[in-house]
Amino acid sequence: MKRIESLSEQxxxxxxxxxxEQHMGQDELAKAVDVSRRTMNRILNGDVTVxxxxxxxxxxxxxxxxxxxxxxxxxxxxxxxxxxxxxx
Length: 88
Description:
Elements: H1 7-21, H2 26-33, H3 37-44, H4 52-61, H5 66-86
Helix pairs in contact: 1-5, 2-3
């Protein structure tokens, strides 16, 4: 399994999971959040730190609670720690 290096990357993976469930593409999400496609791409790839305000707007656009997205990112982080521990 590919290691997810940063918390921003874990958040990006969590966002992508919700996008798939909501059948929402990157362009549509970017428009709903009022950011450029490039900015949304950078968010989804974990290349930038996202503000609380922007995360809230993303969650609203995805018709989910922000806590759902955070829980998914935390689960990815927990999985990373377990996998790292198992590799030792």
